[in-house]
Design goal:
This protein is of the alpha+beta class and 271 residues long. The protein has one domain: PPM-type phosphatase domain (Phosphatase 2c, domain 1). Helix content is 34%, strand content 28%. Strands 2, 3, 4, 5, 6 and 9 form a 6-stranded antiparallel sheet that branches. A hairpin with a 2-residue loop joins strand 5 and strand 6. Helix 1 runs antiparallel to helix 2 and helix 6 runs antiparallel to helix 7.
Amino acid sequence: MKNHLETGCAWDTGLLRKFNEDSIFCASFDLKTHNGVMSAGLFAVADGMGGHNAGEVASDLAIRTFHSEVISGLLDLPATPPMEILAEAFKMANSAVFYAAGDRSLQGMGTTLTAALVLNQDMYLAHIGDSRCYIINSRETLHVSSDHSVVQQLVDEGVITPEEARSHPRRNEITRVLGYSADAQPDLLQVKLYAGDNILLCSDGLCGVLEDSKIARTVLESADPQQACAELTAQANLAGGPDNISVIIVRPGNLPSWQAMIAAQTSVRKA
């Protein structure tokens, strides 16, 4: 069975930072279980923080631990549900970063982690911090994840607008992060995918610089995900490149159209 996940990724230091403290993981594969073969993929973006090289260590350790735990957990499908696999992998990644930070040279390090597991038509998301996951199609740009940040709280409370949040002096303050405590709780979500959907994961070096409308337009107008990733990285650097830039785009194929699903559900209700 051919894998039907078209993918692209980019990882760039930007123009103002000396080091790249982001880490990414991008892999698509055919997953074979006793229920058959399914198109699968695991994608993750981590934006590290901390003094000296600690941010780089935190994001790398989180990504490495998370992906190895998820791949191991997938061997237990379907006995262990995908969401439980993600939750356990996230717990192990957090522990790895938290206890590594006991080293004095790494004290205070932490990282965001936004990870998507795609199994056929389902996307399972584990998320903490202010890196983002979008679903982009011709109808809408859906911000699937929710930023764990001071400015997002202010937006949710109606104190500031999303536009004001982009330039707010506290826009870099994160309220929840992996590795700062022994018990970091991620948001866990499941989303159905339809024909025309593009999954985009990115660090704030992209979404904090480019507006959602520009990101979506580039994704939809690009011939393939890799071209879109390259274009978005170039645009972020043209806008000043103030931070490290990480972006992953996944374009699933062979999915039902949302119109067909609506029609089918309507037929069932009428019957």
